[in-house]
Amino acid sequence: MLSVRQSCSRDVYSLDGLWDFQIDPTDLGNTDRWFATGLPAPRSMPVPASYNDITVDNAVHDLVGLAWYQREARAPRRLGSYRLILRFGSVTHSAVVYVDGIEVVRHDGGYLPFEADITDLVTPGQPFTVTVSVDNRLSWQTLPPGFIQTDVSGRQVQRYFHDFYNYAGIHRSVLLYTRPPVSVVDVTVTTDLAGEDGLVRYRVEAPGAEQVSVRILDQAGVAVAEATGSTGEVRVRQAHRWQPGRGYLYTLEVQADEDTYPQPFGIRTVEVKDSQFLINGEPFYFRGYGRHEDNPIRGKAHDDVSMVHDFELMKWQGANSFRTSHYPYAEEVLDYADREGFVLIDETAAVGLNVGLTGGLFGNQDQLVTFSEQTVNDRTRDVHARHIQELIARDKNHPSVVMWSIANEPESSSEESRAYFEPLAQVARAADPTRPVSYVNVMLSPPHLEKCMDLFDVIMLNRYYGWYVDTGNLADAEAHLRTEVAGWVQAFPGKPIVFTEYGPDTLSGLRDLFHRPWSEEYQVDMLDMFHRVFDEFDQVVGEQMWNFADFQTAPGIIRVGGNKKGMFTREREPKAAAYAVRQRWQAQARKEGSR
Ligand code: GCB
């Protein structure tokens, strides 16, 4: 799906701000038709935001079920023959949208956009009502998966297998935009290098358009190439390459009859070859983090203030990359990464397809099986395939995205897991033949147990030697880590290895002469130990520690006010490790710069 971009044929209006809001744990709203009659007892709720931490009401914070949002909007006065589209950046986890009481769209999946053409339901210049029912319930057929239990008081309790709080609500901007009756609905840009030149292949979908043409504008807005037709290849002479740290962007300005759509893109190549990850033909070493969209009060909502500040912190550290763990991030974040030259591993919301894990490496208390008719099944796989397709459709033109991660830490050591993932690897490759595809492997599935890695291009590993195992014994941790890396190198020769998680929980301010677990000293020591081992293996081409910042989780005996593995606190104050790792990453960056 195309991002919303303003142009001479497209006007954009924001519906962000305060909406009416009401929780509906007993599902009254559908029976009483709140979408037509209005919310009986609304309170104010900001959009975008997770609703959970905004009020001081436990019923809102712990809601399992439906919440309703409603507001008035006004159709543009001079709509003429143009279409009016209502567009949501994301609603977590599923939404049904009504305009003046009539359902216009429903969408499952809490981290991807959706839209509806509402032209025929509105009158130019007149107000209309938008209502959204938001469902935060997770089941075995949602991503991420979960299941609901009823406690002794009859209250519904959401259980899940991933380690971040189940924040919900309208998490990204709600927009109205106009476009001509015949308009661009999709653009795909892929690029190659030919010596100093860039080759730009494009495909435009604009159903019914009689004339399609494109111009390539450089960063100064100067046209450097053009072509006609809905597909083609254009040569950009002496092209500026999009490079890590230098995010040069061109714009493919598409003209389809009356419609103009500006599609930003970068000229660069990505390839996996001989245990190396190549960007523009040069070995790239990933330095950075797994992250979360997570902030005090607003939860998982996007906001530009936090985004820009987080990128400043990452640059200060010398990081060059991150993974969008564990779901697709806001489109604004991808646009900004493109501009800033950050390298992204783009992940689906398939986290927790593994009943062996709940918030870390500890037991399966409910005796569940991951893959079965009652749990993760063929229907889940169909949903997963759709998520992969929607993610790639949204993010395919971002030069910052260099690899797709189709799942985080799924079960991958059983025959069932292979049967589940084999078709999904194909779905991803069919949707995008230009980028490597992989998934993130869990510690429970070392090379001798692993059944899926041969389907993928890069070995991504989350490892917690020194924390969940060998706790406090970094000598043993180091030995075990070294042996395991050697095992991967031997089992999958030629595949590069990226560490996508490692690090201990660390309580900011806890200092310890004896460097024991939870102290800031231990975080420094443990990260240092991992880095020592990485440096011994040429096949290790990246280190993304866990996590950029502390983040909120479900309550649990191994979580103290959330997960504390951040390099920064949840408020973005640095821990000691932030300075120590900065020295290493800045030194690496300087070395690369002098090459
Ligand atoms: C993992 C998960 C991540 C958790 C982390 C932890 O392996 O991928 O979501 O937060 O471990 O801290 O336990």
TrEMBL record:
It comes from the Bacteria. Its EC number is 3.2.1.31. Residues 183-268 form the Glycoside hydrolase family 2 immunoglobulin-like beta-sandwich domain. InterPro entries: Beta-gal/glucu_dom_sf (IPR036156), Galactose-bd-like_sf (IPR008979), GH (IPR017853), Glyco_hydro_2 (IPR006101), Glyco_hydro_2_AS (IPR023232), Glyco_hydro_2_cat (IPR006103), Glyco_hydro_2_CS (IPR023230), Glyco_hydro_2_N (IPR006104). One of its GO terms (biological process) is glucuronoside catabolic process. Keywords: Glycosidase, Hydrolase. Residues 270-587 form the Glycoside hydrolase family 2 catalytic domain. One of its GO terms (molecular function) is beta-glucuronidase activity. It holds the Pfam family Glyco_hydro_2_N. The keyword Transcription regulation does not apply. Residues 14-180 form the Glycosyl hydrolases family 2 sugar binding domain. Gene3D superfamilies: Galactose-binding domain-like, Glycosidases, Immunoglobulins. The keyword Manganese does not apply. It is an enzyme of class 3 (hydrolase). PANTHER family: BETA-GLUCURONIDASE (PTHR10066). Belongs to the glycosyl hydrolase 2 family. This is Beta-glucuronidase. It comes from Scrofimicrobium appendicitidis.
